[in-house]
Amino acid sequence: MPSIDVTLELVTPAYAGGASPEQCDGLRPPVLKALLRFWWRAMHPELPPDELFMAEAGLFGSTGDGQRLRVIPLGDPTAMECQRPGQSLPGDTAFLSYGVSEWAREARGFRTNRPRVATGQTIRFRLAWGNKIPCNAEEEFVKTLWLLSTFSGWGTKARRGWGSIHVDCPCFGGAPYTNLKDPHGAASVDDLRNRLQAGLTAILGPRAGISLQPGSNEAEHTAFSPDTRLFIGPGCQNAEDALDKLGQVYNRYRRALGAGRNHAPGAVGPDHQKRSNWCAKPPVKTDVAPLGSAFGLPHLARFTKGPRVDVGVGAHLTGRRASPVFFKVLRCGARFVPAVLWLPARFLPVGTPVCVRAPAGESEVRDPGVTGIAQFFDGNPELMCYARGGGAWLGLRGYGWTEVNW
Question: What mean pLDDT is reported for the chain?
Fold first, then answer.
């Protein structure tokens, strides 16, 4: 039976919990298989939904086709070192941790509120498959593993840099995968950029220019497309500093969108102003959701005096729209590099509404579009920052980040 043995290593801690918030399950085979499915779909923007699901079932299996790819642990996931709740979240890493953190009044800082798998933990897996799947299965799996190692996290808050994983695969860099060099094996930031460019070109080729929605670059599913953006930041001394660097730019930008702080009178970003208006005047269908909604829903904003404005999916705001922006920490020689990837896609399925619940009323509103994310990358001279100094929002490039093109 053909197979590939790989080793997964955590570059940043992973919130890999079980059914209970008190559990820590380690890195389990079902999660790895789910991640492989996701990144395999992401590298196939050329397939319409029916063909996509059929091809996915042929590689990974389905209820009708049975199991195709087997993911076999070569170690005990439950034996991994797990950290108890109460771990400190220094700097702006707390901003990347909403939902898995809480304010510790006595320490005047944020702490984790659930266990997590510690940085540096490793486990080996065997990917094995039989003769019933396509003859190019190995190539598909190796390319998917490369994307997984380059862009993916593991567990809760995986899209915010937590659980950043390194996949050590013996196929990376060898024939016929010479252009798929291990991104975490780069000797410098320039070497990393070259490895990312070569790998993405080899994996996507002409597919990177394919748009699934006629007349638009917007993909029907979360996938690479002509609008995909990738930035890498400056090298940091350790993974914690790289994670904090991601938190800094994200916190600075989101506060510019919705700042309204006691220490900055009049510091009101457009999202804050929009929500403030809904406290006095009910939202209507022609209104547009706050720009920050493009980073994921649901989202709530509580004002200093108590009123709250919630934005979510569906009439009851119980649906979810995952962020199309992925934060990642990559090892680079003796340093660590933060990375941000954007995979633009249709905001929600046709007919699924975005809704606002505000003190003045409730209503469906229009989706936020991509302006909020685009200016996170490119800057907006009219958007003022009120965190960590003043001035206009410069965008990632303005703060020393580099865009990777392929």
Answer: 89
